[in-house]
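We close this part of the discussion by returning to an individual protein. In the encoding step, the backbone of a single protein was reduced to a row of integers, each denoting a local shape. The sequence in question and its structure tokens are set out directly beneath this paragraph.
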Amino acid sequence: MNELNFTLPFIPSRTDKPRNKGVTMMMDKGLGLRETEDFIEASAHLTDIVKFGFGTSYVTKDFEAKINLYKSAGIRPYLGGTLFEAFYARGCYDDYLRVLDKYKLDLVEISDGSIIIPHKEKCKIIKQMSKYRTVLSEVGSKDSGIMISPAKWVNSMKAELDAGSWKVIAEGREAGNVGVFRPNGTAHTMLINRIVAKVAPESILWEAPQKNQQVWFIKLFGAEVNLGNIAPNDIIPLECLRLGLRGDTFFDFLPSDYADRLKHVNDENEISMSDE
């Protein structure tokens, strides 16, 4: 990263944009043009891709102007997977391709979180799309009542990567309470461990809108984990988590002797204060 204001030792390295790992995806749920400009001014250097959440692109004013703002700032925008599903469910797949062409979108999401698409058909679409565009494909259901076995998660992710997906998105929704998360927002640890035992973590983009979820993934995979569904105002706070500049990850990137010594001092201070 070149956008740093001063130097600190023991800060984890971050690859520069455009990057293949440590990707940050912001979820735009209807920012206005002025808000978009403000976001770009503050956070474009930390943001790789922007998803126009669910069907918001259908009703957003000045949509093409927003797309051009993101592109000019070095951010790749794309339409949310739910919009693809809305076209597909209505038998309008070719119309969807025309929308992508109209707005010159070279990044596309293929998902089946709200409807059922035979997996062979989904992989066929991914293969076709990947010839001309970069494909993100999402695995997992938006319905909390649908349970998917770890084996099916793994097989689906591997098949979609083989079909041409750049990254597979692990479903979490904008609330972070389905898919790889329990209804209370905590991670399905066993499921995630089973997934990464078979699928390279750098090939997965984890939807993690909640701070505790972001912390959990950074502690597990490090600063270069791919994270998505990040709110506009959380991009800079997330980068601070990645770099060990917030309390939640403060000790994760310090050398062990530093961390042990500082933790020992903190423990002694707590004991001293409790004695007063």
